[in-house]
Amino acid sequence: MEPLSRRAYAKLNLGLEVVGRRDDGYHDLVTVFQTVSLYDHLTATPAAALSIRCKNPALTGRHNLVWQAAELLREGSGSEQGATIGLVKTIPVSAGLGGGSSDAASALALLDRLWELDWQEERLAYAAGRLGSDVPFFLRGGAALARGRGDQLEHLPTPPEQWFLLLMPNIRMPGKTPALYRRLRPADFSDGSTTEALAESLRDGAPLEEASMVNNFERAASETFQGLQRFRDALEHAAGHPAHLSGSGPSLFARVNSNADGVEGLEELRTLGFNAALVRAVDGAEQS
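Below the sequence we write its predicted structure tokens.
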């Protein structure tokens, strides 16, 4: 049979506020996720055993969330079926763009179809939540307001024809996300109202406003990722709009007024040697 395939889109955090630390050690968030047109590509074909094929051998083992997604489905269904999963990586690892979580969600969706499990959306979402707080979002993608650990979702309209310049610094840090959470101070926390207002504007179909696009990791990221300001300055010059951190970083994004402006800005960034991309907001209906 022909392999089943699915795009695993990256996400931006259009707004991200950390409300406080929970008793279970996690943090309560208010964030607006938005999938964008940078994506990994997954395929799945029947096989006697489970395996992942990827040009990066570091991503083919049991530690990969794709493998763990497959094991969760087999555990939950009692199935002993296998699959060969092809993974073409484009989204940088540990970049604040949700690539691993998106891959895991795509693996769940693909293998549910391949193995003819026919799990309901709620059951897939529960399995996704066991893999990571933001994995349930990627089952549908688009725009969503997320609360709690990031797993309480309210889907929102995607801003139409919204383009972003995305700059992805080659800065890698083991255990990045937990480390950034540990570096947050009480003054970095907020009540989530700014991001709630951003979500309301999306419900109303209003254009994005810079004042609502906040990220409580900005200070910690600037102090953690050496040279981040240089990337920020270059992006803001190329885009003509303020740069924003995605997730806990180090990736940065900025709005552009049109595709044509974005193409010009992208050329400027690439001429300077930066790893950059021009992306548009992707609606959940485009997930395939």
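The chain has a mean pLDDT of 95.
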